[in-house]
Amino acid sequence: MQYCISKENILNGKNKILIEDKEHKGTVRVAGWLAGDMEAVFGAKPSICTIQSAKADEGLCDGTMPVIVTSVDTGDLADKLEKDGVADLSNLRKKRESYIFKLVNMHACEERNGVNTALAVIGSDKRGTIYGMLHLSELLGVSPFIDWLDVKPVHRDEMTFDETVNMESKEPSVRYRGFFINDEWPAFGNWCNKRFGGFNAKCYEHVFELLLRLKGNYMWPAMWSAIFPQDGPDLLNAELADELGVVMGMSHHEPCLRQGEEYKYLRGPESIYGDAWDFRKNKEGITRFWEDGLKRGGHLENVITVGMRGEFDSTILGKEATLGDNIDLIRDVLKTQNELIRKYVNSDIEKVPRMIALYKEVEAFYYGDDTYKGLQGDPELDGVILMLCDDNFGNLRTVPKESERDHKGGYGMYYHMDYHGWPISYEWVNSSYLPKVWEQMSAAYEFGIRDLWIVNVGDIFTTEYPLSFFLELAYDYEKWGATNLNAPSEYTKKFVRTQFPTLSAEDAKSTEELLTGYSHIASNRRPEAMNVDVYDSVWYGESEELIDECDRYMSLAKKLYKECDDLSSYPFFELVYYPLMANLNVQKMWLYTGQNHALASIDAADAAAEYARKVSECMAFDRDLIDKLHTIHDGMWYGMGMSEHIGFNFWNEEECSFPVIHSAMRPDKPRIVTCIPGTDRHTEGGFWTGMTLVLDAFLRPDTSVGKIRLYSIGEGEAWYKISGDTDKLQVSVTEGKLKCGEQTEIEICLADGSRKNGTDMTQVSEGAGSGCAEYVLYVETPSGKTTIRVPVNTEDYSSLKKGTYVWCGLDRKGLSSEHYPVRTAEKCAPAGFISIEAGHYTDKQDVADGTFTEIEAYGRTLSGMKAYPLVKRFTPGVDAPFLEYDVYMEDAGEYTVRAYVTPANPPYKDNLLRFGLSVGSKDMSDPEIVLVDTVAKSFGVGDDNYAWKQGVLDNIHICHADRTFAKGVNSLKIYACDPGFVLQKLVIYKKDKAPADSYLGPKETYRIC
Amino acid sequence: MQYCISKENILNGKNKILIEDKEHKGTVRVAGWLAGDMEAVFGAKPSICTIQSAKADEGLCDGTMPVIVTSVDTGDLADKLEKDGVADLSNLRKKRESYIFKLVNMHACEERNGVNTALAVIGSDKRGTIYGMLHLSELLGVSPFIDWLDVKPVHRDEMTFDETVNMESKEPSVRYRGFFINDEWPAFGNWCNKRFGGFNAKCYEHVFELLLRLKGNYMWPAMWSAIFPQDGPDLLNAELADELGVVMGMSHHEPCLRQGEEYKYLRGPESIYGDAWDFRKNKEGITRFWEDGLKRGGHLENVITVGMRGEFDSTILGKEATLGDNIDLIRDVLKTQNELIRKYVNSDIEKVPRMIALYKEVEAFYYGDDTYKGLQGDPELDGVILMLCDDNFGNLRTVPKESERDHKGGYGMYYHMDYHGWPISYEWVNSSYLPKVWEQMSAAYEFGIRDLWIVNVGDIFTTEYPLSFFLELAYDYEKWGATNLNAPSEYTKKFVRTQFPTLSAEDAKSTEELLTGYSHIASNRRPEAMNVDVYDSVWYGESEELIDECDRYMSLAKKLYKECDDLSSYPFFELVYYPLMANLNVQKMWLYTGQNHALASIDAADAAAEYARKVSECMAFDRDLIDKLHTIHDGMWYGMGMSEHIGFNFWNEEECSFPVIHSAMRPDKPRIVTCIPGTDRHTEGGFWTGMTLVLDAFLRPDTSVGKIRLYSIGEGEAWYKISGDTDKLQVSVTEGKLKCGEQTEIEICLADGSRKNGTDMTQVSEGAGSGCAEYVLYVETPSGKTTIRVPVNTEDYSSLKKGTYVWCGLDRKGLSSEHYPVRTAEKCAPAGFISIEAGHYTDKQDVADGTFTEIEAYGRTLSGMKAYPLVKRFTPGVDAPFLEYDVYMEDAGEYTVRAYVTPANPPYKDNLLRFGLSVGSKDMSDPEIVLVDTVAKSFGVGDDNYAWKQGVLDNIHICHADRTFAKGVNSLKIYACDPGFVLQKLVIYKKDKAPADSYLGPKETYRIC
Hints:
The structure is a homodimer.
Chain A: E1 3-6, H1 7-11, E2 17-19, H2 25-42, E3 48-50, H3 51-56, E4 67-71, H4 77-83, E5 99-105, E6 117-123, H5 126-139, E7 158-161, E8 167-168, E9 176-180, H6 187-196, H7 201-213, E10 218-220, H8 236-244, E11 247-248, H9 260-266, H10 283-297, E12 304-306, H11 323-344, E13 354-357, H12 362-367, E14 384-389, E15 411-416, H13 434-446, E16 452-456, H14 464-475, H15 477-480, H16 487-499, H17 505-524, H18 542-563, H19 566-601, H20 605-635, E17 661-663, E18 672-675, E19 682-683, E20 693-694, E21 706-712, E22 718-724, E23 729-731, E24 735-738, E25 743-750, E26 772-781, E27 784-793, E28 805-806, E29 823-824, E30 827-828, E31 834-837, E32 843-845, E33 851-855, E34 864-868, E35 882-889, E36 893-901, E37 914-921, E38 929-933, H21 946-954, E39 957-965, E40 968-975, E41 982-990
Parallel strand pairs in A: 2-3, 2-4, 4-6, 9-10, 9-16, 10-11, 12-13, 13-14, 14-15, 15-16, 20-27, 28-35
Antiparallel strand pairs in A: 1-7, 5-6, 5-8, 18-19, 18-21, 21-25, 22-24, 22-26, 23-25, 26-27, 29-30, 31-41, 32-35, 33-34, 34-41, 35-40, 36-39, 36-41, 37-38, 37-40
Helix pairs in contact in A: 2-5, 2-8, 7-8, 10-11, 13-14, 16-17, 17-18, 17-19, 18-19, 19-20
């Protein structure tokens, strides 16, 4: 059977959209969207008619191939089709929000009216039918952003389907799936006012369409200044939502369909609602306020918020109130609210979707304490969705224990891709990262949080990419959930293909890389929280590397944007170019500022000034980019770039600071500073300074090139001359002159040609097998003679197993730090360390019901290792899977193991988030397993918890354990324990000899390959 | 009897200088200086002739009034005069370096040869006669710097003396008194080479003249590149010294009249001296090296250095050597050296002045330890001066205990007014301060260090002021020593009068103030050690006040220099203008840099830029000033300004850094920052920042004006409006506009007129007697509304004794910090504290043999309190004098007492430097006395001792004791204990609530007056 849609068919009236006479109003409206989509694809718009009208006007000619749209809960079309044997609806009738999508041969039908074949979209209910129609749009190559972002589909002359398209959709995985427009000033608010004249139905029509096309069904409206049930105007917003099948909720602190702003306007000494947001002192007024809210909107489809918080999202009772006072209050509130709901919405209250948010302090009221029973298990909460939440930074807070998961109302999750609050807000531009969203929301689902997922998307704009993933995951968990380890990358591929169908395969791949890349960098540090002190300006070259990475992405984005065809150009700007450039330009600006400070601090005045210039360029670029956003496409997005986003000193923009530029002054005489890039070690070689540099690159057996850098910082031209073991070390340039302000990088290789191609040649002719050779270079300049010691690792590691990490520190035998009087302004350089990427384990051991799994591209620097099943608490040494890292040590002794783990919060009230750790020489049978806490016992989430603050800003938790290592190969094992633990990185160093601090930590060190 | 010198007399041959035929050659040479001095004063030069020649050529006419010069140890003139009854020499004959200065009537003399009256200068010996002649110069108004600095005397037509000038001089207090030219490159070296062609006798003639005119008799020559006994050329330098009675020593590590540089040139595989500065491996060569040194110069007057250090002033044996090895070595060295001295200098070795320096590690060799007896008491050291030393920063190290003071050779002191070494050198310009020199060297004398005082004066130039005081003190301890508490100021007055006789009384007073002022600031922080982090840029306004102080001195110096007459102009430049401007300009440059950084950090871009401009001006001024020094007076001082002196990062100039300038960028919108000057508290008043400011000025009952400061930091014009309790608080300006970059300071007074004139009106009408009133002001600006709380102290303190310090902290009753949510970027402001200047004690208690004495202008901020007798160790509570401070507390509780004391080193090997402390309510009978250590038990002096480093750089030691205070008036007593303790300041605060850090500490708080 063939089914063809084409411009010709449409113009001939053959491809009409045929609708059940009694169809839901909203379905009909969405049929209009579908007609529009078809026009966008084929260039002609099919008409929409009801069966009745079609019959009446003889609109259906022979050989017609309409799209037949019907819901099983309306009229009798579906029944007839079933009766005629065209479709079996028995399964569909048991489901919600589902649809059958099927090519049907109508010849057998009683009333075929000339219809030949048809594409039947039969929904289980209003939303089922809507999703079914939008499924067709999807098949036609229409982006869900066709309306919201004006993403145009590829024109087609015709499109033919066969029976392979037939399907019966699944029920959506999560019951209520939606987003929350929040923190909407200045961006969304200005945009909305200019474009639509207010937060009205003209605006919400677009928002609802976006939601439905993304397979969501639920939302919370903007609420900073807006009143959704009044701004339509009147009830228009709410009625439109209801018509379209969008279930409305309100934010966690807006009970009984009343917006927070409303009370502010209605209260007063003369008000019928009284003049205090106080259920104790003004019970009557408040009850009436709620009552009128339910009267106004209770007839529409809602998830009604119950419970109560203070005004402006604050605590409800004062500091003096006890836990008991608070619990009693909420209990009374719930009782009153439930009574009102029974009276004004539905006497069978179980049928009324209700939600209470266990947000911030309310969590404590729910659980109670030893002396005061909390709300948990209270009959007033029967059937109420318990809405849990993340920590505002995308990490789940407490989740239901196994015994709690059967709560009748189920659970919800309030997640954030935008946040306004302590310690630092992020509202400007998307900084959410798919692997993190996937990892956390999959866990939420596994913990039984399946009834409501709502995500705060701020202004919506620029979060489309992670938002669409979030809703897709909620809609089809089976496809995208925990077991699909490639979900984020697979989704990104799909996303790019959908939005940019005309990109070449190569450009599409690049675009995926850009989306992943910018959002990874932004999630490592959000733009508002970025400042000059975040990334270390010198150590491990992390700042310089990140600058390079930003440059690479930005150049690529520029290039692709320039090359985009007319179809892709505007969507590319919205979805890729703007969020990427906005994010990375701010990152770079701060990184440049760091370089400026670092160079000024070594008096490299000209080099510092060059970076100062770059900072200014970034500042200008930022403004130009936002101007462009505000004017492109006839100013469609005017307002959306208005949020402050540079240098937050408080949690919000108040008193935010632009970068402070440092200017050094040139010394009077020619002077050259010699530096070892990637370290803070530098000297001008003055004899008395006692400074010696160490080029430790060749301690790694796989390094082929080491670098030194010279800055000419003084007035006049300065000469330099490199001497020393130049027979052993090949120096790219041995002498030269640098004008004032110039710099040069000199490359050092081993002269015997070993390691030439970066291959792992551990043998240099000199000192081979002795473990270490040591050479020396001198850099003579007008200001001194710098000694650079160049130790070369010549150890024979051939007996070591592949993947073994090898200690290559400065304190290797014969190279004790005594030989290296590296006196850097009274601070010694570290003797050495081992740094391990978690994904590079030497071995791993699964157990019957437990395995460590690598989450790719998840960590700040590489991947993350997480134990499955996600909800299981393991006992290390008993039933826990483990990772094994082979570590070769030069010396036995006390070492510190530092673990970098995802900043997850403890899953349960016991506040435990641990992993197991054991260390022992390879042949040791049962080394002791210690449990390591990734957070302190006193760890808390939220305002004024400084450990949490550090974790969410840095996107990492760091914890330590001191262990004894043997000489030779040790086995370091990491055991799964509490759910939520994700290992990203390990660093091992001699106790009290930590490597230099930096944001991302030391880069991975050498392992046998 | 009248004695008249006049131009006429000189021209008529009446004022000849008549010398004993057999007089010392050196005396004759100095008579030439005297003749020159007389010419400088009277415009005619008297001739010098011997008695014999005078007789022969009939040069003496009737009525002649010559200056008769003779030494008792030459010829027979002195004997004849005594015989003739003209002078009684019996006393003089018993003394050294003394003279009789007397008008004599020659009529009774046997051979009067026409001489009528004469001015007889009869010396006990060569130096006595020389000092006698120079005494006449002094009386004629000739500066000791007439030669060295070209300070010209006031011209006189005649000068008449009567018998009131007659005197017999005292013996100098200290046997050997002199200075050490050191660290002479680049300054002295370049100067000397250009002016004299080397370190030769042409140069040393001036140096010796300076020494003798300053009443010194001893010196160590430059030794970095020079070889004194060869550069004369040949022995000329040494012979000239001997001729003039200058006793030569060499530095502490140059034994047997051999300069350190010599061995470097003479050593070698073929050398007769061998090729190792190693007494163990090359005993023969080293012995011969010393032998030849003694042969060369042993016949001249020397203090011969004995002992041995390593090359370049380093340790003699390697790290592996034990204390015993070292002691044995030095013992052997001494034995050899003494034998050589017996052989080549004087077999009666007791008659040969010898010195061994107990410098750095040698100190340990001297004392030994429990297992190995040190050199103390060794017969080889009999009669050898034990030279002790300061810590290179003007603080004595260990001194002789009472039992040790009878060492036969006596003791010496090596003091520093210039230093090249760790932690930071100071060589550029004088930074020594008279009160400190006086306090320390008086103590040295009292501890029995009276045989040798040598001071390192670097290049000499600019240290003339403290150097001349040092030598004056050594010459006449009775006059200037410990009992003369006004010695420094008295000497400064004398110094100014001598150098600038033509200044008006007022200008002379100002000049004294300038000398004291600049050297005080420089000694608080030496220029090389100054950097942007020293003084706090905001707290207590210490930086702004110091800028003002520098400005005041610099303006005054400029004015006086401009007004100087021809006579004073050049000396004023050398002695006042140059060292003052050089010092203070560098201080200011760093203070400006601090203001620049502080303002940039609050985004006050324009205000920061204004300070950046000032920094640049200082940099330019520094260069111009040195250029001026190098060209003034025909380039006489070319070279003397060459030392680097800005931003030392190491102990010497290597890699030194100029200031780094910070530039903020203007925010896009009008924004105003409101600050409380003298604190780091500032805000733009954003509601969400949670910041409240506190203007705590009126917590002091004697404050009449409080200030707030506004900076307009954003683009465009910004308005401000001040409201609140403006009926209670009079605000100088309540509204206005500030252009971008502008700033304004607003004054707040109490509106009821109380405290109008800064008088102590503790009563304001509102809340009088209740302890405290509290008002509030609001500063509204485009960026927010700042709340400023203004607490006003209304307590009635009339019952408190005068001088009582009163707790006026923010945590006074009704003003607990809870009422002040001062959230400054997560750091709370201090609740309050009491700060006490040591000199402002309420009472003090002397004991029979003990009293606390105030040393004025001695402390960093005011005076110092030191116990007399200087050498006594007291037992607090038994025989110790004490100081008493009455302190009124609002609350009883645990407080920390922080003491700021002079960075003295413990006087004895037991490493103790303590004081006693007791605290108790006024009526308590016997509060516990605790002993407080001003330094840790592990305190050590010298390289790599970080506590010592901090102390000498900051010129303070800070120590703490926690004590319980009662509510109401407490008596805090400070008891004398170990010698060396000088109390400068006390700060008391609630435990763990320290006031904000700053360099000088919090300023003195309110006391009843």
